[in-house]
Design brief:
The complex is a heterotrimer of chains A (507), B (302) and C (361).
Chain A (H helix, E strand, L loop, with lengths): L3 E12 L2 E12 L3 E5 L6 H8 L7 E6 L2 E2 L5 H6 L2 E4 L11 H7 L7 H14 L15 H13 L5 E5 L7 H16 L3 E6 L2 H7 L2 E6 L2 E6 L6 H9 L16 E10 L9 E9 L3 E5 L6 H9 L9 E3 L2 E2 L5 H7 L1 E4 L14 H9 L6 E2 L2 E2 L1 H14 L16 H13 L5 E5 L7 H16 L3 E5 L3 H7 L2 E6 L2 E2 L3 E2 L5 H7 L14
Parallel strand pairs in A: 3-8, 3-9, 6-7, 7-8, 13-20, 13-21, 16-19, 19-20
Antiparallel strand pairs in A: 1-2, 1-4, 4-5, 9-10, 11-12, 11-14, 14-15, 17-18, 21-22, 21-23
Helix pairs in contact in A: 3-4, 3-5, 11-12, 11-13, 12-13, 13-14
Chain B lengths: L2 H27 L7 H19 L2 H25 L4 H20 L13 E2 L9 H5 L1 E2 L1 H19 L1 H11 L1 H6 L4 H27 L11 H11 L4 H24 L5 H22 L17
Antiparallel strand pairs in B: 1-2
Helix pairs in contact in B: 1-6, 1-9, 1-10, 1-11, 2-3, 2-4, 2-9, 2-10, 3-4, 3-9, 6-7, 6-11, 7-9, 10-11, 10-12, 11-12
Chain C lengths: L1 E5 L5 H25 L4 H9 L1 H4 L4 H27 L7 H18 L8 H27 L3 H23 L33 H19 L1 H11 L1 H7 L3 H25 L13 H11 L4 H25 L4 H17 L1 H4 E5 L6
Antiparallel strand pairs in C: 1-2
Classes of the chains: A alpha/beta (507), B mainly alpha (302), C mainly alpha (361).
Chain lengths: 507, 302, 361
């Protein structure tokens, strides 16, 4: 058919122990925004890697504009007119925008011409960007623009976008959608990968749904409900968290104008963050990635010590207390990065239990570790939080993301914290495990603990939080009860006012 | 002391370190920390000496030294890039292998003299009074080393290959995602670093001393590594660092010869102490410019 | 086509097997090297690995040498392994070894010719302190300014060598030595002579200390929370900080322990096998110990075995020099190759090798 740009027929790719893609077929029309929908681990990224030439399929074929398309490497794909915006940007922080753009092009023009072209494209599509700025100093939204402009300069016929809105504020999402609509009007096809259903319903013409590596159906998103798509995506229903009582106790943790310098060249400083959280309450903290989430967690966990008088726990100033002292007092935390921060990848689950529970669980006496007790503790966590693993002797990195996340969150909850601060508790976790983790947080709150949940998943925060605040460039908005919020207000709290002046796109 | 001779001998003294450091700079810019510079230098020193003595041609000696050290460095590349060994440990291993290998090869050459490397008077410029003899009447390797600094600077700043090299060193995951061959780029950078270290080593045994003694590079390779840190990974900084160090070495040697009351040992240790001091000053200021992926292993999972 | 696939967790089998494989590979390649030098390869290998222990004529002399050489190697390597586990690269143990000997000897010589039984223990403490102080320089510079400990500790080796030269030729020189460089000979001073404890075994106090260090390091790393913190810091520095480990303390602890043990090794050596402070006292034990630490997989008992093996190559090398005219340097190369092959074969520990058919593009 003359209107088909890319047709995918029976693509199969197996890795040891898992079939990532099993006989996947679908077609993308010219000038169509085509959604690729599926949970984490459904095989979306393997599929797009094959289209972009990063992975070779075991079986199956692709046709681009009617002729065989077998990209052996990304440059083949780019030459054929296929461009990709990655979820985890393939950008170089220490290099400037123009250099980053040049690296993504086959035959970049001279630096001066390139800078001019970058300015032109950014004006045409409403994506303002200074070619000479170092990428490390850009916000997540601006970095995405670098990736998009890098693609657009090559006039692609097919643009692949992998979870593009996960790093954007609602207002920035609107700008992006306008850009994509303009591209579509010019005849560019877009393969849009996401698991956000509402977004796909607004934007996409067609949707292909993957589950466990198989194509389980195609639909026209505007004609079906989000619920129908969700069922196709997940395949089964799962428990939604139960509601809890609204009774709140005394203030357990309080930050009073907490300010801290940025930890590294490309970190974010904290600027006068003030918050309170009460017993039995869940405080949700939203915001686009890279706006101080990590820094706030490190300040609260005690990894970086705050100035005197900034952090109060049960009425005592703990600003200068280290992680151990804070744990002893009952303030526990769970960082975002599972491997390397919350857990040591090469160490066993037992050892990773000792990592935070050594004192609260009495696993150490006179400086000597009681390995029997430590193993017992690890087994308790594995049992209670349904961690799928051969046993507590398994190395942390051998676990799947979801199972390790259950372990590291469970490890803290098992220690009965009075206050639990957690960053991205369900990041990269499948729906069932995510629901289990959220339930565990709610149960902990119901028992009278105070919880600070930092997350970039707004749906998650709306589901479990009592109050909500948003981080923007290291500042925390005033926190408000979730019941009085709507998406517009949340967007403004997240600093959506950013770049509002360019929200209109020419033509 | 004659200032003309002083400057000239500083240039001679700085050249081996400059060569080794500019090579290591390129290697590190690609994200690889090769701590085996000392081993590659000493291998270059012995191979250069052996070839020059056997063939009577210093030029062939330098060429052979560069090739031999590049080959040796590729063994480091094989281990770290393909077999994914720890870069620090492998670099140390390379140094130990190089020291042993050079001692073994060199045992037949102790006490011999190297053929003379002729001075290359640059026409016109070398006739300038004072300045001419000071700066423009050296052997070709001195000029080569200076040309290399400029070439590396221009390569990194202006060429696409240089940009790719920097990109690979900054973030190998991203470079891989964009389709660049991380391992190949790094192997090339490692070999370049090896060749430069070999040239530097050969300069020690063929020009500076000029004879072969076991362990004669005496830590020059380690100092080259320190100079790369000192330079904040900039070619011109390497030049400054190497000449600064050359200056210290020459001055302390002159003081020893002049027979001051300062103990000889204190003078001999001064270059190392000053290197430490410089490292402290640089790190206290906050070392900037280290490539983002420096020393991290890369394994393409897909 | 060969592809590497990361194992979910390191293989314990290969962890133990790689050193054996590395030794075998070194023997093979070493044999080829000896053949190239015109020496009979099998005889050379046998001379290095077998004769020191079982040769009817030489074994009685060389067997005790095994412990004499292994003692300092093990003692230093144990200290280094603690730091390497934490990702702290002290490669200047040679300098700490020299400083331990110089300072320990200086303290002893200050009391010459006392015959107090307390003097030797005092010297041991002074030696450990000397090595510790020398290691504290890179430690403090690292914690205070973030200076790279690899480069600083190595630079300090050259500084220590100059201090050794100056001690031997001036301030510790034997006043009754007719102006020859070198200190008084401790072998002629019974109160401090670190003699064999049991005749013809090579067992001196340094070897005892090495054995104690092996056991101490095992307990520290396997059972004690500080050992756990050290391992954690090496495995995942961010996780260590999250756990509450103070990185400054780990640096001071690791460099301190390795410096003190190296210094102690130096003191036992200078009062025993070496006998005096002399310009050529630094014998490269500090560098060889790096190989020992890796070959022993940073495991205390592994280091014990690796130290004995490395001592064997030293003695066997000397024997081969004597009997086959093998160049002395070839043993150094031999040891370097051993480390190289170990690092190369280590890939099996963390990765599975898969042979796959060439993929169609």
């Amino acid at each position: 058919m003359a209107d088909t740009l890319l047709s995918i027929r029976g693509l199969t790719k197996a890795y040891p122990g898992v079939v990532a893609n099993d006989d996947v077929s679908f077609e993308i029309q010219k000038g169509e925004i085509h959604a690729l929908l599926g949970e984490n681990g459904a095989g979306k990224s393997t599929l797009v890697k094959m289209i972009f030439g990063l992975v070779k399929p075991d079986r199956g074929e692709m046709l681009l504009d009617g002729s065989a398309y077998t990209p052996g490497k990304p440059s083949d794909a780019r030459r054929a007119g296929v461009a990709m915006v990655f979820q985890h940007f393939s950008l170089f922080e220490a290099l400037d925008v123009a250099e980053n753009v040049a690296l993504g092009m086959e035959n970049p023009p001279k630096p001066r011409d390139l800078a001019r072209q970058i300015r032109e494209v950014s004006e045409t599509y409403g994506l303002p960007l200074d070619p000479s700025r170092t990428v490390g100093t850009l916000s997540a939204g601006e970095r995405q623009r670098v990736e998009i402009i890098r693609c657009l300069l090559q006039h692609p016929r097919l643009l692949i976008m992998d979870e593009p809105t996960s790093v954007l504020t609602p207002q920035e999402v609107e700008i992006l959608f306008e850009t994509l609509a303009k591209l579509k009007a010019e005849g560019t096809s877009i393969l849009y990968i996401s698991h956000k259903l509402e977004e796909i319903r607004t934007l996409c013409d067609e949707a292909t749904i993957l589950r466990l590596g198989k194509n389980v159906g195609t639909c026209t998103p505007r004609e079906v409900t989000a619920r129908q798509m969700a069922e196709m995506m997940v395949g089964s229903s799962f428990a939604t968290p139960e509601a809890r009582s609204a009774e709140k106790g005394e203030v357990l943790l309080k930050c009073d104008a907490l300010s801290m310098p940025a930890p590294g060249a490309f970190g974010t400083p904290l600027r006068e963050v003030s918050l309170e959280v009460r017993a039995g309450e869940v405080l949700g903290i939203g915001g686009v990635a890279g706006n101080g989430q990590d820094e706030l967690l490190m300040a609260l966990s005690g990894e970086r010590l705050a100035p005197k008088g900034a952090i109060w726990f049960k009425g005592e100033d703990i600003s200068r207390a280290g992680p151990m002292a804070r744990r002893d007092a009952g303030l526990l935390s769970g960082p975002e990065e599972r491997l390397g921060h919350a857990a040591a990848p090469n160490m066993s689950l037992t050892e990773n239990g000792v990592l935070t529970a050594s004192r609260r669980k009495g696993l150490v006496s006179n400086g000597f570790i009681d390995w029997g007790k430590a193993t017992g503790f690890a087994e308790e966590v594995i049992e209670r939080f349904d961690v799928r693993t051969p046993g507590p002797g398994t190395a942390a990195r051998a676990l799947s993301g979801g199972n390790l996340q259950k372990y590291v969150v469970g490890r803290e909850i098992q220690q009965d914290p009075d206050v639990f601060v957690v960053n991205q508790p369900t990041w990269g976790v499948d729906a069932a495990a995510a629901a289990a983790i959220r339930q565990a947080l709610l149960d902990l709150a119901a028992k009278g603990a105070a919880i600070i949940c930092i997350s970039q998943d707004l749906d998650e925060l709306m589901e479990i939080s009592d109050r909500f605040g948003a981080l923007n460039e290291g500042r925390l908005s005033p926190t408000r009860a979730v019941s009085e919020l709507d998406i517009e207000k949340i967007g403004l709290m997240m600093g959506g006012a950013h770049d509002m002046e360019v929200a209109h796109v020419d033509g | 002391m004659d200032p003309v001779l002083l400057v000239a001998s500083i240039m001679v003294s700085a050249t081996p370190i400059l060569l080794a450091a500019i090579g290591e700079l390129v290697t590190e810019k690609s994200g690889v920390l090769n701590l085996g510079v000392e081993g590659m230098m000493i291998t270059g020193a012995v191979m250069g000496f052996a070839i020059a003595v056997s063939t009577g041609s210093p030029l062939l000696g330098f060429l052979g030294a560069a090739v031999a050290s590049a080959v040796l460095s590729l063994s480091f590349g094989l281990l770290t890039q393909y077999l994914l060994s720890n870069q620090v440990a492998t670099g140390l291993g390379l140094t130990l292998v190089g020291l042993g290998l050079s001692a073994l090869i060199g045992s037949n050459y102790e006490g011999q003299r190297a053929p003379n490397l002729p001075k290359l008077d640059i026409p016109v410029l070398s006739d300038i009074p004072v300045l001419g003899r000071m700066l423009f009447s050296h052997d070709f390797v001195v000029y080569l080393s200076l040309a290399l600094v400029v070439a590396v600077w221009a390569f990194l700043k202006y060429t696409r290959a240089g940009l790719i090299l920097r990109a690979v060193g900054e973030d190998h995951e991203s470079a891989h995602a964009l389709g660049y061959k991380v391992v190949r780029v790094r192997m090339a950078a490692i070999a370049f670093g090896g060749a430069c270290a070999g040239l530097g080593g050969a300069y020690v045994s063929l020009v500076r001393v000029p004879q072969w003694t076991e362990g004669m590079t005496a830590g020059a390779g380690w100092i080259a590594l320190a100079i790369v840190v000192f330079s904040s990974w900039r070619p011109l900084g390497v030049l400054v660092g190497a000449y600064l160090f050359g200056g210290v070495t020459v001055i302390q040697l002159n003081l020893q010869a002049a027979g001051t009351t300062v103990p000889v040992e204190l003078l001999s240790m001064s270059p190392y102490l000053i290197t430490i001091l410089v490292l402290v000053v640089i790190s206290a200021r906050g070392a900037h410019g280290a490539p983002g992926s420096l020393g991290r292993p890369f394994h393409a999972s897909s | 086509m060969i592809r590497l696939e990361k194992r979910p967790q390191p293989s314990t089998l290969w962890t133990a097997l790689t050193p054996v494989l590395a030794v075998l590979l070194t023997m093979i390649v070493g044999g080829i090297m000896f053949a190239a030098l015109g020496k009979p390869p099998l005889e050379a290998i046998r001379t290095i690995f077998w004769d020191p222990l079982f040769h009817p004529q030489f074994a009685s002399y060389s067997r005790p040498q095994l412990l004499v050489k292994a003692g300092p190697l093990i003692l230093i390597a144990i200290g280094l392994s603690v730091g390497f586990r934490a990702g702290i690269w002290n490669i200047g143990a040679e300098g700490q070894y020299i400083m331990g000997a110089v300072i320990g000897a200086a303290v002893g010589l200050a009391f010459y010719p006392s015959d107090s039984v307390l003097l030797f223990p005092l010297m041991v403490v002074a030696g450990a302190l000397g090595g510790w102080l020398w290691a504290m320089i890179p430690a403090l510079l690292k914690t205070r300014f973030g200076t790279n400990e690899i480069l600083v500790s190595l630079m300090l080796v050259y500084v220590a060598e100059n201090i050794l030269a100056s001690a031997s030729s001036s301030w510790l020189r034997n006043p009754e030595g007719q102006g020859f460089p070198g200190s008084r000979n401790f072998k002629q001073w019974p109160a401090v002579f670190n003699d064999e404890l049991i005749a013809n075994t090579g067992m001196h106090w340094g070897v005892v200390a090495a054995f104690i260090a092996v056991i101490g390091a095992y307990v520290l790393m396997a059972r004690h929370i500080q050992g756990f913190n050290i391992r954690l810091t090496g495995e995942a520095p961010r996780a260590a900080r999250f756990s509450g480990v103070n990185p400054v303390r780990i640096v001071l602890l690791c460099l301190g322990v390795s410096g003190a043990l190296a210094g102690m090794a130096g003191l036992f050596e200078v009062t025993g096998p070496a006998g005096q402070i002399s310009i050529d006292f630094g014998s490269g034990y500090g560098f060889t110990a790096i190989i020992v630490a890796f070959l022993g997989r940073l495991n205390p008992f592994g280091i014990l075995l690796a130290g004995l093996l490395m001592a064997l190559t030293y003695i066997g090398g000397e024997l081969a020099q004597l009997m086959l005219g093998l160049p002395g340097a070839s043993i150094q190369l031999f040891q370097g190759m051993l480390l190289f092959f170990l690092l190369a074969t280590d890939v099996f520990t963390n990765y599975r090798i898969r042979f796959v058919g060439r993929e169609v593009a």
